[in-house]
Amino acid sequence: MVLRRANRGSNKNQKPSSYESRKLKTWMLAEFGDGLTVLCHGTCGRHLFYSEITKDRFPKPGRKGGRYVKGNVRPMCMSCNASEGARSAAEERRKHQERLARRRAVYAERKRHGLQDRPDSGPRLVEPAA
Ligand SMILES: [Zn+2]
């Protein structure tokens, strides 16, 4: 049996071909804008030309399996798109910290009951990088 890790938290999936990418940008210009410029769907409020558009997967983001297809992309400038990614990365880090805290609680409980872990078993206590 082959076990695959879920591709969670990664943004490197489902990149469209350059042909598909051009088609999607043209579609976004027509769908969300006037065919020449389109408003950034981030927070900057800028009008973007074709060359400034980056594709933001919405409503289903990439980390939830959203794909680059019509209906799941909206136009965003590069900096808004990048800061969005940073936010979700921060969210991932926070979840990771919570998981570690739960593991530590389990470990402390075991210790309290005098259950000694073998060297290579049980939750490993790794101090997270700051
Ligand atoms: Zn923007």
Description:
With 130 residues, the chain is of the alpha+beta class. The chain folds into two domains: 18-84, Orthogonal Bundle (DNA Binding (I), subunit A), CATH 1.10.30.50; 89-117. Helices cover 38% and strands 11% of the residues. The protein contains two helices and four strands. It has a two-stranded antiparallel ribbon. A two-stranded antiparallel sheet has the order 3-4. A hairpin with a 7-residue loop joins strand 1 (37-39) and strand 2. The mean pLDDT is 84. Bound molecules: zinc ion. Zinc ion binds next to helix 2. Residues 40, 42, 44, 46, 76-77, 79-80 line the site of zinc ion.
How would you summarize this macromolecular structure in one to three sentences?
With 130 residues, the chain is of the alpha+beta class. The protein has helices spanning 18-32, 78-112; strands at 37-39, 47-49, 54-57, 73-76.
What's the helix and strand layout?
Elements: H1 18-32, E1 37-39, E2 47-49, E3 54-57, E4 73-76, H2 78-112
Antiparallel strand pairs: 1-2, 3-4
The protein binds zinc ion.
